[in-house]
Design a protein that fits this description.
alpha/beta; six-stranded mixed beta sheet; 17 helices; globular
């Protein structure tokens, strides 16, 4: 029996292809199903089942399209109200695919109707469990995505679901979650790249804490919910349209200038240092980095707003488009490809300085009134921050930009990625940003002597 992992690092999720005897089962597929089809072809398997652990809140599923494309049964939890034909998965059901058997366990918590699938061979021997957003590696799925009025109920349910998995499955059962590899669907950070039920019995908070402690700590630790999540559940219930990965419409320099002048969302995909060194006035920097790009485009760009990409190559734009369709950003206004100098078409470029935390410390020592913006989330800020900095999380900056004085402003985050987005937003409004490009962890070693960093801000 072969279990292949299909990583989607941009969203912090995994999908799976399970195969034996020329038959395959796909678990929680992402929307760009070409990856899954290519893998099935490589393994020489016929996909017989496509199963969902839940209606996802962080991406649009490719399950419906994949099932239709290959003629497989499409399995969705029985309690979910969906607008398409599906095979309902209810607690205790056993699904068959060739020599494989999938037993359905109702494991509510991440959603009301969430299920897990226990994989067994033809002799009934348990081979693995696919836990979706229930039991993660050293954590569990967050419980506040269905609505705040359900959070307490679902958190208690999550506790019992994880315990059910631990009670009913052998200790050596490999655990294969969908979330927990950077996904905001994880209640707390996860640890490790693989695990078993037995290991989780020793480290998972739902299995090492009493129920009320687990509930209290999970709820207290919940962070901001990315804005695009509000559209994923309804989209998955309605049934996503077939994916479109075709190239966006070309945008020439005059049209690009018009879009920039109109204040539209024009996203430059280059690295943050290249962008800072020279970019088109009004452009915004969302570096095409695997772990962050789609998260922050989806979070910051208003849903349905015209979005134009600037890429150095056609492949860069194609990679960005693939990331975006996973969360339902299908209709791009277009894309411009080339260097900033070429796309400027004779108009001037703009730039801003790049520094690090040591440079920030020196600037603060020279100017006690220096304006500094911390673009991290509230949970990150709770652990400390730059003394005197203004805390404006990146996902709030567009609405709170008036809180930032005109003139020079230094901006930092945990790595430099969000700070670069913030710097480009500030530059678009005429302020003069300085990007602090570096890990916040370096603030302790790089500038502690001048009192740059302190905990408990």
């Amino acid at each position: 029996m072969q279990i292949d992992i299909i990583e989607t690092p941009g969203l912090g999720d995994r999908s799976y292809l399970v195969s034996e005897g020329g038959v395959g089962v796909v678990v929680d597929p992402q929307r760009d199903i070409d990856r899954m089809l290519a893998l099935a072809q490589e393994r020489d398997v016929r996909i017989a089942l496509v199963v969902e652990t839940h209606l996802h809140n962080d991406y649009l599923t490719g399950g419906l399209e994949l099932a239709r494309a290959v003629g497989a049964a499409y399995v969705v939890p029985a309690g979910d109200d969906v607008a398409y034909e599906r095979t309902p998965a209810a607690d205790g059901d056993v699904l068959e695919a060739g020599p494989m058997r999938l037993r359905v366990l109702h494991t509510p918590g991440h959603t009301h109707h969430h299920v897990s699938y226990v994989l067994a061979d033809g002799e009934g021997s348990v081979q693995a469990v696919f836990t979706g957003g229930s039991m993660l590696y050293g954590s569990t799925g967050r419980t506040d995505l269905v609505g705040p009025e359900h959070t307490d109920e679902l958190t208690h349910a999550q506790y019992h679901s994880v315990r059910r998995l631990a009670d009913e499955l052998p200790a050596d059962t490999p655990v294969f979650p969908t979330h927990g590899f950077g996904s905001f669907c994880s209640a707390t950070p996860t640890s490790g790249d693989s695990s078993t039920v037995g290991e989780q019995r020793r480290v998972n908070p739902a299995l090492t804490q009493d129920e009320q402690t687990y509930v209290d700590e999970l709820v207290a630790g919940l962070t901001a919910i990315p804005a695009w999540y509000a559209h994923m559940g309804p989209g998955n219930a309605a049934g996503p349209t077939p994916v479109d990965l075709s190239p966006p419409r070309p945008v020439d320099p005059p049209e690009l200038a018009e879009r920039l002048a109109a204040g539209e969302w024009v996203v430059d995909l280059r690295t943050r240092t290249a962008f800072a060194a020279g970019h088109l006035p009004g452009a915004l920097n969302f570096q095409l980095a695997i772990a962050n790009f789609v998260t922050y485009v989806g979070w910051l760009v208003p849903w349905g707003a015209p979005l134009t990409l600037i890429g150095e190559t056609e492949q860069q734009v194609a990679d960005a488009r693939r990331e975006l369709v996973r969360i339902g950003i299908d209709r791009l206004a277009g894309a411009a490809i080339g260097t900033p100098e070429k796309l400027a078409d004779g108009r001037g470029l703009v730039s801003y300085p790049v520094s690090d935390f040591a440079g920030l410390a020196a600037a603060m020592a020279a100017d006690a009134e220096l304006v500094v913006v911390d673009a991290r989330r509230a949970d990150e800020r709770a652990g400390g921050g730059v003394r005197g900095s203004r805390h404006i999380p990146i996902h709030e900056l567009a609405d709170r930009i008036d809180e930032v004085p005109d003139g020079d402003v230094w901006v930092y985050c945990g790595s430099g990625y969000r700070a670069s987005i913030a710097a480009s937003l500030l530059a678009r409004t005429g302020r003069r940003p300085v990007l602090v490009d570096g890990s916040y962890a370096d603030a302790d070693t790089g500038a502690a002597a001048v009192g740059l960093h302190h905990a408990g801000v």
